[in-house]
Amino acid sequence: MSRRRTLEEYRERAKGLIERRKSKIHGWGVFATARIKRSTKIIDYAGEKIPHKESRRREDKYLRKGHIWCFHLNSRWVRDAGVGGNIARFVNHKCAPNCWVDIEGDNIWIRAARTIRKGEELSYDYETDGDKIIPCRCSPGCTRKL
Hints:
This protein is of the alpha+beta class. The chain has a single domain, classed as SET domain (Beta-clip-like), CATH 2.170.270. 14% of the residues lie in helices and 28% in strands. The chain contains two helices and ten strands, in the order αββββαββββββ. A hairpin with a 4-residue loop joins strand 5 and strand 6. The longest helix is centred in the middle third of the chain and has 13 residues.
């Protein structure tokens, strides 16, 4: 019989799977330090849980600096990785990503969409509504706004 890992155990395991480095996509990125199998829960997207009303104010401040750190959990709540966040806030957007997001209750998981090679940068589609001001940098010629 297998037991479920705790959030702390997942975070500890992530230290052996990923690291933050300079990215060719944008600023900092998160890179695999070992091969990561498809569907693996890599890291949770940590941050202060705040109501949407508060997130709008914070998001405007972050966007002016070129960051998207508020992740919408549901219609009421948002995770602000700018306050209490972890390495997951540095996973960059790509229109054709190697990761996907899985929301389980209050936890936002970044999971491997396919097997990720050692040294490969992790990415997921931010799935923003398109009214943001940050240009997508996932590939030359991409005209999407985040």
